[in-house]
Amino acid sequence: MTDANIKALVEKSFRHFHEHPELSYQEFQTTAYVRAELEKAGIKILDTGLKTGLVAQIGRGEGPVVALRGDMDALPIQEETDLSYKSREAGRMHACGHDFHTAAVLGAALLLKKEEGNLPGTVKVIFQPAEEAPGGAKVVLDTGALADVQAIFGIHIIVHIPVGTYALRSGAVTAAVDTFKITFRGRGSHGAHPDMGLDPIVAAADFVGAVQTIVSRNSNPFAANLVSVTHIQAGNTWNVIPETAFVEGTARTMTKEDRQLVEARIRVLADHLAQAYGESASVEWIAGPPATLNEEEWTGFAASVAKESGINVVQAPWNLGGEDFAYFLEKIPGSYIQVGIGDTYSNHHPKFQVDPGFLYPTSEYLAILAKKALVRLRK
Ligand code: NI
């Protein structure tokens, strides 16, 4: 395949993925498409047992090993753009650029295949399912296919950064995303006889106010922590004090220590506020992905390879969103590189759209990055 053919295929594939979005763990057609293109190029696909997504391997299976990751899933959103390649699936849309990621990484695989004989090691190319679930990264890790990987790189589009610019940062780029669900249990009674009951709404309301002191009083003022109560439910009429009150929300933190602090404080506040009113609280803590921690040296390396390729590099903004690439970076050093797509609606918006101007250059960059990372590991 000539470079021009690869470029045309990458651009065509992006439009194809955009037209045919599939939700998390349902990426069957996308996987089949990628598999077919890889097989046509003679690229080896590893036997991982993944139901959707796949891991391909380029190189002779010796020497250092690096990995590239592109996620494949779309969102349950009805697309409202005027694109000629607008989604053909009702209620489903690539509104987070994963169509771009899949196409870019496919292009990188094809470019690397051309140089397979000269590769100073092995490149594993991950087409990951269910980033939005989240947790597809964990499913890929659990296959064991990445056990020998020494460095990993992932891309994600970023809005409001110009096309042709990458945004990078070492350290935490996105937050640990945890959920808490608390049930305050009191004793129901007639609305006119609060003395005969234990009102769980009072404890829940106190909790909603007090929980903000975790950020304002317990956290380092320079730390980027966040707690939001996003769902409250209690009672269903005007003259009955209910038995329980339910409070749900999200906690976002950038370090392991802050993550532990916030969880511990939420538990203490819920328990003790409930106790103060003679009630009880049960706290369910659902841990999501950890913070995405870009390793310093590989991030500097990824930035310098970008600059050598004529790509503009800026400091990535902090973001308290979540990203399941964090699971890979928990086990393997590497970097999460954000690719500017210019000004558009925010990701997950029905009018979101990617400027594909830097799609093929991103394939070229990823291929060069993987190759140079192998050289670096060899030294
Ligand atoms: Ni995304």
Features:
379 residues; alpha/beta; eight-stranded mixed sheet; four-stranded antiparallel sheet; 16 strands; 35% helix; binds nickel (II) ion
Structure in words:
- There is one protein chain.
- With 379 residues, the chain is an alpha/beta fold.
- The protein is 35% helix and 24% strand.
- It contains ten helices and 16 strands.
- The protein has helices at 3-19, 28-40, 98-114, 136-142, 200-210, 213-218, 256-276, 296-308, 325-331, 359-378; strands spanning 44-45, 54-58, 65-71, 122-128, 151-158, 165-168, 171-174, 176-185, 189-190, 226-234, 240-241, 244-253, 280-287, 292-294, 312-315, 334-340.
- The strands form four sheets. The protein has an eight-stranded mixed sheet, sandwiched between helices. A four-stranded antiparallel sheet has the order 10-12-8-13, covered by helices on one side. Strands 7-14 form a two-stranded antiparallel ribbon.
- It is elongated and about 80 Å long.
- Bound molecules: nickel (II) ion.
- Nickel (II) ion binds next to loops.
